[in-house]
Amino acid sequence: MKYLRVLYVQVLIGIALGVLVGWKYPSFFPVAKLISDTFINMIKMVIAPVIFFTIVAGVAGAGDMKKVGRVGLKALIYFEVVTTLALIIGLITANLVKPGAGIHVTQKVDKQVADITEKASEMNWGEFFSHIVPSNVIDAFAKGDILQVLFFSILFAIGLKWMGSTGQSLLNAFDKINKVLFNILKMVMRLSPLGAFGGMAYTIGKFGFATLAVLGKLLLTFYLTSILFVFVVLNLICLYYKINLWKLLGYIKEEILIVLGSSSSEAVLPSVMQKLTAAGCEKEVVGLVIPTGYSFNLDGTTIYLSMCIIFLAQVFNIDLSIGQQLTVIGILLLTSKGAAGVTGSGFIVLASTLTALKVIPLEGLALLIGVDRFMSEGRAIINFIGNTIATVIIAKSENEVDMVRYKQVVEKKGIQLQPAPAAESELV
To answer: Of the candidates 303, 186, 202, 201, which has an alpha carbon nearest to the alpha carbon of residue 254?
Structure first.
């Protein structure tokens, strides 16, 4: 019975019950969606303030402005290289396995596809970078726009740092507020089994298992490719920096299961920031890399986008040349940056990419609507794992991780240490 008190065991039970209830009582899905959305909203309510106070405390408290710029640039370069590898792997796998071969679709645009296409046409990707600067900072916090909050937080931290010792009292107050926010987070995370239950009951109840019969090959190919990406590409990066991937995944297993159940990587953003800080990663690096990665380092989403485009080309018997596939990579390197770590955004980005490509009929999106939710969990998990690894790698490359503490906390090696000042207790 003692295992029932462990959070990840409770989340596993919630996921299993969600699958069972969604299968046996599909009409329950509206209530299940309400449960899942409420849990995610409870997490979202602390995301913006956690990012703000964490970055201000890190940069203004002990930050070097040159280091902030160096870490930011290094993170962006890392994100571009790794997401490009994810795109290429997705394209290669889809070309080899051919998940769309033999599937036929009638060229009929239903209302849902028309709505998605309309939303995609409204997205102006050229304005993405200008959007980083908020016109109203209160509005940025109200909407929970991660990049805008990140941008303002860095400016605020620099302004506070310029105050010198006179700003120390404000910095101390911010540190106390941040601890209160993490105490709120601990309370909310206790409800994560219920959130995972609602998410899985909604997915199975609304979409059922029937859609998997037709598009099972695509779903299987996507998940196998994602696993290959994590345990080959990301594992090689970890090996180069002498980081044990398995131990790190074990350390964040509760968060991985919550992402699986809720289908949203945002649901664990504050908790992974706390865990990485507790593991010895510099608070400043964690505060910069994690939020930035949620818009610029979407490995799972890029695999999904590249694979679905090749899938639809195969469905319509469109033979994309090497040049056209390189064009796909170029377009996706831009459009994928606008896919936030929330449910459903990847599908809108796919529609906008097809619109920009002007080769594959948008009608094919109707095929993917049912199975998209089953792929959403995979996208969110890979995005989350990729951002966690990126943070540890960048911290290690900057010598901004206490490896003695890291090995003790993550790999369970070495002597017992006192809790880290920035994160006084674990969530479980």
So the answer is: 186
| Whether the Cβ atoms of residue 37 and residue 43 lie closer than 8 Å to each other | no
pLDDT tens column, 339-365: 544 445 666 777 777 777 777 777 777
* DSSP code at position 281: B
Task: Spell out the SS3 assignment of 90-157.
Answer: HHHHHHHHCCCCCCCCCCCCCHHHHHHHHHHHCCCHHHHHHHCCCCCHHHHHHHCCHHHHHHHHHHHH
pTM of the model: 0.82
416 within some domain:
no
- Structural domain includes residue 292: yes
| Residue 428 within any structural domain of the chain | no
Q: What does the pLDDT look like over 282-302, one tens digit per residue? A: 988 998 899 888 878 888 888
397/388 Cα distance (integer angstroms): 14
Q: How would DSSP label each residue in 21-36? A: HHHH-GGGHHHHHHHH
Containing structural domain, residue 401: 2-409
- Paired with 281 in beta bridges are 401
The helix/strand/coil state of 269 is helix
**By the 8 A CB rule, do 273 and 287 touch?**
yes
Q: How many domains does the chain have?
A: 1
Residue 155 CA to residue 151 CA, distance in Å, equals 7
Res 83 pLDDT > 50:
yes
Q: Measuring CA to CA, which residue among 273, 280, 277 is closest to residue 51?
A: 273
Given its phi and psi angles, is residue 402 left (phi above 0), alpha (psi -120 to 50 degrees) or beta? beta
Q: Is residue 353 part of a domain?
A: yes
CATH number at residue 380: 1.10.3860.10
Burial string for 357-368 (b: 16+ CB within 10 Å, else e) reads beebebbbbbbb
Classified as helix, coil or strand, 321 is coil
pLDDT, the chain, mean? 82
Q: What percent of the chain has pLDDT over 70?
A: 83
Output the six-digit token pair for 172. 């101390």
**Alpha carbons 115 and 134: distance in angstroms, whole number:** 28
